[in-house]
């Protein structure tokens, strides 16, 4: 019998999906589960977007199209990025893909060779190191620590750069910590990239979900447009997760390379979803701002509630829609705690180790359920916290 390619052994899955599968099993048994494990908004696309999709299908917009995406959408992406975050790119620098993961994968395939080294954030999206290893590269983490408010230590990043370092990946706001990298941090990363001739893969999927200030893209810094690939899409900001539509913005030669990869893989993204995505980018009903305002209310409610639970400590996220909770003081491992919350309290969360070794003492909750459900989740967690409340109190008294 033939062997499976060895690169498959270098890949790993996503912890959120395994927790989701177990939560669904419990629901089939009649259990009430509050789903805070997946990063999937509980909103749906705005009505004009759905209407545009229907009209596109009715008009026969279901044919093969350009592997790079339909020109109107690529132009709309370029206009949108300039309007919302000051990124100056042309339609020729945009490539449309069926989902952000595919855009990310195409970019990594275009830039990374076996033996290269790839720097990535820990905690961070688990696909970064997984796919880098699958391409034969060495994935090297740089750590986001609570003592630094989850901002990276750029000196530490610099110390990890070698002659083989090719790509530095980060996302801001970060999944799972919710940290938006500061302007100073971005400037220092840009300086490292220029000094060491690195590619930057900037995952900006949460760029619009920012609770304070204006978003700063590293693309906009001097000299960075020529060495940066932006990954973004429609799943988070426009609640279009199942539509599977993302995009990359990159220098022309990178887009040319990714275009060739598209031709050798999926041919093109569906035309009718691309047509509807143009309407999403217009955001005529201001649905994005309304959604972000609701996430801000959920953040304030849930984080303050978590910080009242014995042994829990949570810094308010600056963006995205996650609560990243330190549970070390409970003396219960985060993995066991996540299991207890799911099996006994009916609250689905992710143990932080799913996002890297730096997450071993953390839990991630997604703020993707209505406020009344978040309140109920807090009540359920509070009830089971009796298991470790005494231990936390004893440790506090001895300090």
Give, in spatial order, the strands making up the sheet with the most strands. Answer: 2-8-7-6-5-3-4
Radius of gyration: 21 Å
Shape: globular
Q: Give the beta-strand count.
A: 13
Q: Calculate the terminal CA-CA distance, rounded to whole Å.
A: 61 Å
Unreliable residue runs: none
Q: Please count the helical segments.
A: 13
- Largest sheet features: 7 strands, mixed
Q: Could you report the average pLDDT, rounded to the nearest whole number? A: 95
Q: Into which percentage range does the β-strand content fall? A: 5-15%
Listing every helix as H and every strand as E from the N terminus to the C terminus, the arrangement reads: HEHHEHEHEHEHEEEHHHEEHEEEHH
Protein structure class: alpha/beta
What is the helix content? 40-55%
Structure description:
The chain is of the alpha/beta class and 399 residues long. Helix content is 41%, strand content 14%. The chain is built from 13 helices and 13 strands. The chain is globular, with a radius of gyration of 21 Å. The chain starts with 14 loop residues before the first helix and ends with a helix. The mean pLDDT is 95.
